[in-house]
C-alpha cells in the first residue's frame, strides 16, 4: 500500500485496498467495528465482510434494531463484546470502587455520579431475577 498523506481517506478506497490484500493473500478476512447498517451494506458490496464487533449487553441493546438484522441478512458474523459490561453486571458498584484512579474505564460516564446510582438499581434488579432463572 502507498503512504497517503491526508487527514481523511475515502472509505471505499480503503475497502478497495483491503479487497486487494485479500486477493493477494496478505489478509484473509475483513471486519468492521461499530459500523452503521448503511456502512455495512456499502462495504459488503465492495467485498464480503466477515464480522462486525459491537457492544451488545443487557446495558446496550441499540444494535438490535438495525445493525444485527443487517448482519444476519448479509451472513456477517456478529462479535459481541462487553456482555457483562466489563464486570459491572457481575460485581456492581464494588467493581468501580476497586478500580485504580488511573484506570480508563473509571472515566466512563455510566460509572460516574447519578449514572452509577441508576446502574446500581439495574444491578440490584438483575441480581434479584438471576437466582429465579436457574
Strand fraction band?
Answer: 5-15%
**Largest beta sheet: what is the strand line-up?**
1-2
Average pLDDT for all residues: 84
The share of residues in helices is 40-55%
Task: Kindly report the oligomeric state of this protein.
Answer: single chain
Coarse morphology: elongated
Number of helices: 6
Instruction: List SSEs in N-to-C order.
Output: HHEHEHHH
Biggest sheet architecture = 2 strands, parallel
Poorly predicted parts:
none
Derived from helix and strand composition plus strand pairing, the structural class reads mainly alpha
Instruction: Report the strand count.
Output: 2
Report the C-alpha radius of gyration, rounded: 20 Å
Intertermini distance: 53 Å
Structure, briefly:
Helix content is 43%, strand content 7%. The chain is mainly α.
Amino acid at each position: 500500500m502507498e503512504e497517503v498523506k491526508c487527514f481523511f481517506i475515502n472509505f471505499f478506497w480503503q475497502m478497495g485496498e483491503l479487497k486487494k490484500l485479500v486477493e493477494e493473500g496478505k489478509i484473509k478476512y475483513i471486519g468492521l467495528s461499530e459500523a452503521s447498517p448503511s456502512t455495512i451494506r456499502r462495504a459488503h458490496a465492495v467485498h464480503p465482510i466477515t464480522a462486525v464487533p459491537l457492544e451488545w449487553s443487557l446495558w446496550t441493546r441499540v444494535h438490535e434494531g438495525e445493525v444485527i438484522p443487517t448482519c444476519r441478512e448479509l451472513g456477517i458474523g456478529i462479535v459481541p463484546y462487553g456482555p457483562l459490561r466489563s464486570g459491572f453486571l457481575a460485581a456492581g458498584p464494588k467493581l468501580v470502587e476497586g478500580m485504580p484512579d488511573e484506570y480508563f474505564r473509571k472515566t466512563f460516564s455510566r460509572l460516574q455520579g447519578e449514572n452509577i446510582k441508576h446502574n446500581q438499581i439495574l444491578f440490584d434488579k438483575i441480581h434479584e431475577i438471576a437466582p429465579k432463572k436457574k
